[in-house]
């Protein structure tokens, strides 16, 4: 796991805008997926990209690390919050792989898993995944060490006090060629230090162990191979 520091959050966000723009526009011989995360830092990036004239390669598919089971118009919908960027990409609906927020948790997880399995079954590749990390150490909606270890299925229904959710599992995360965790602000320092020094103690560290992961931050954390 590599830690990459940026001078400030604006520089980090611009770099991610550039990486997403490049990956969106790639032409691959097989379908390729870009995974989007929720949270404040990615949201600012998606909004910025929504104001640009983006190009979507003919092989591009967009998917989500997780989502809340809420209407698309709800501020908590990761899919809803990416609408401006999807519109800028002019991406056909059939190339957007998303959680159906109107469904109950079990059926929503099954439907999302079926979509991902179909994508992989058609030879789809998992190119770039954007993730966040919570101050409690979760990534996507993997809030426990047990959930972070699950590889027996592609998606999980997650019950939380705030929202019902659906999340991808390590089984999906492990298929990505490149994963980037975005973490900005002093409030993320402690959990990033834990991710660096004791990754086995938090869900994100367990879910991402041994994978090609970069942590992008505006904090000085240091680097350690993992």
Written account of the structure:
By secondary structure, this protein is an alpha/beta fold. The chain has one domain (2-217): 3-Layer(aba) Sandwich (Rossmann fold), CATH 3.40.50.1360. It has nine helices and nine strands. The strands form two sheets. Strands 1-9-8-5-2-3 form a six-stranded parallel β-sheet, with helices on one face. It has a three-stranded antiparallel β-sheet with strand order 4-7-6. The longest helix has 17 residues, at 105-121. The N and C termini lie close together (5 Å). The relative contact order is 0.19. The mean pLDDT is 95.
Structure in a nutshell:
Helices cover 35% and strands 21% of the residues.
- The CATH topology comes to Rossmann fold
How many E strands? 9
Query: Structural class of the helix and strand makeup?
Result: alpha/beta
- CATH class category name: Alpha Beta
Helix content: 25-40%
Order of helices and strands: EHEHEEHHHEHEEHEHHE
Unreliable segments of 5+ consecutive residues: none
Instruction: Please tell me the total number of domains.
Output: 1
Average pLDDT, rounded to a whole number, is 95
* Biggest beta sheet attributes: 6 strands, parallel
**Beta-strand proportion:** 15-25%
Shape: globular
Instruction: Give the assembly state of these chains.
Output: single chain
